[in-house]
Transglutaminase
Amino acid sequence: MAPRATVDVEFAIRVTETGPAAISIAAAHADTEELRVSWHGDSRPVEFEHGTRAEVFDLPAGEHRVTYHAERVLGEAEPEPVTLADVAVFTRPSRYCPSDRVAGLVPPELVELKNPRRQIEAIVRHVHDRLSYVVGASRPTDDAVDTLLAGEGVCRDFAHVCITLCRFLDIPARYVGVYAPGLAPMDFHAVFEAAVEGHWYVFDATRLAPRQTMLRISTGRDAADTAFLATLGGELDFLGSTVFATTDAALPVDDGTGLVVLG
């Protein structure tokens, strides 16, 4: 029997100026799921490309609690083909992945490898070895150049650096927010997908959780496209969150070298 993943999320916000807020925490291809907000007004669903979903709420002023529960059977997924539109979008510089500004920071051996899969694997090793994972080390405004100069960051920073180096080498790469059973400390997690022989595969330079049991939440050019909470007018304060992602089977061993498809 295939293993089943379970996700539970809870967070609180304080709306200080009324306006729409987009909540994007839905797991892709969930078998069952339920999103609840302590305010009982209607929401407007929004679907984006590559499986990202959001619910937009017109929240009144005050404190609100958001909960989400989902379950999904984990099975083998077919790799998604890389379209021409993907190539056009995911080889360009973006807000947090300024691939046009890193020429002096790219190790020469990455350029010399030529084979894209070998280049991606070398990028993952390089970022894993060069950066230190330090909770709270980076600012929300830090891009990949800031992270490379600082030498430390969190999962989103690792993903941004890998994406930037891939794009510098003309390899399509995109940012993915995921739930990651086995992650410690548990939270929302960020990884990246890169194009290998015309299909998307997932990579993670932090090596903090097995890729085989990750669940996609959102996909985009970088973290600017994949926020789990965003105001679309109005203002709010984020008061904290808890995230749990588990499976009912033993976690697989992931040595970080194989090709893994993210469902």
